[in-house]
Amino acid sequence: MAAEHPTYSVVVEMDNAKSIDWGEIGLGLRTLAREIAAVSANGLARPKVIVSHGGPETDIGSLRSHIEAEAPQLGAVAELGFAAIPGGRYYDLKNNGVRLTEGDVVVFMDSDTVPEQDWLSTMLTPFRGTEAVCVNGHTYLSHDDFFSRTFALIWFFPMARGDTRFAAKRAINANNVAFRRDWISSHPFPEHNGFKVSCTLLMHQLWREGHRIVNVDARVYHYSPRGWRFFYWRALVTGRDADRKFVALHAPSRAQRIVKSFTRWGTMSWRTTRRVIGHAPQTGMPAWQIPFSLAVGLAFYTLAFFGHFGLAAGLVRDEIEIVPGYVGHS
């Protein structure tokens, strides 16, 4: 029988922290402390917050100092722990953090996300008195200029508001998701060469076992990608990851993979056109910028096509995806 008031831990990965500043990280941690205080006031036990990073153990002292300076409230409402996995990639950090968690539920949050009011309560409520295994929140991109508005329109996250249809069928967000601890401990994010493939594979594992993913309106915003270098690299890796997902889920022939690269190009071009035209006004984008935003979105998915086609056709090797040092804010 599931607990009426489940205990929980939070895992915060620090991989994305390499590309943002401590002021932005601190805002996310301060809002996390606010959310923990709110649910603790309603009777939930003090949680563990595991900060998982890809540096050596010797970095822990510096991390602790930064966190105490930026979010002193966090140490007052939660027990802080640190997990180091030198050279670990994004999903490695999440898996490594789970090892140190305690309680019934593990909540995942990223260092470059900021929760809205009642986020944590909304994430935890479905676990109370039920057999829910996975609860998935709503992540959206923040935006304050032309390029961030464009990314918000074309990205794989739903918009913050007015995007009900897309939000209802969203995939699990590794940056805003919670699992029963016994399940995620025995079903870690799969190892994979792709950049953002493992969460898709884990979602299909849930489905194969007959588990329903509970989508809730627990909102966090993710800092927007910025810069042309990131735009170029992320588009290509988006295409390569699309091929990797197709291979992992369908085991297609090379000819089928090549055909898929063309059909996906068409699908994503149409989706981009529809979303930019339909949702641009709600981002505050002036009407005169919409054609330019559409051009940027179509360019992104054209680059993604070249990444997809190149891997599908065997023109590039399937190598481990690591964020290049030149990319910057991601």
Helix-strand topology string: EHEHHEHEEHEHHEHHEHHH
The beta-strand count equals: 8
Query: Rg to the nearest angstrom?
Result: 20 Å
User: What is the name of the CATH topology of the largest domain?
Assistant: Spore Coat Polysaccharide Biosynthesis Protein SpsA, Chain A
Count of alpha and pi helical runs: 12
Q: What separation lies between the terminal Cα atoms?
A: 42 Å
Range of strand content: 15-25%
Q: Give the name of the CATH architecture of the largest domain.
A: Alpha-Beta Complex
User: Which strand order do you get reading across the main beta sheet?
Assistant: 3-2-1-4-7-6-8-5
Shape label: globular
Please, what is the CATH homologous superfamily of the largest domain? Spore Coat Polysaccharide Biosynthesis Protein SpsA, Chain A
List the domain count as a whole number: 2
Helix content: 40-55%
What is the CATH class of the largest domain? Alpha Beta
Mean pLDDT: 93
Alpha-beta content class:
alpha/beta
Low-confidence stretches: none
Largest sheet: 8 strands, mixed
Question: What secondary-structure arrangement, pairings included, does this model have?
Answer:
Elements (H helix, E strand, L loop, with lengths): L7 E6 L8 H20 L6 E6 L6 H11 L1 H6 L1 E6 L5 H9 L6 E6 L2 E3 L3 H6 L9 E8 L4 H9 L9 H5 L7 E5 H6 L11 H11 L4 E10 L5 H23 L3 H26 L10 H23 L18
Parallel strand pairs: 1-2, 1-4, 2-3, 6-8
Antiparallel strand pairs: 4-7, 5-8, 6-7
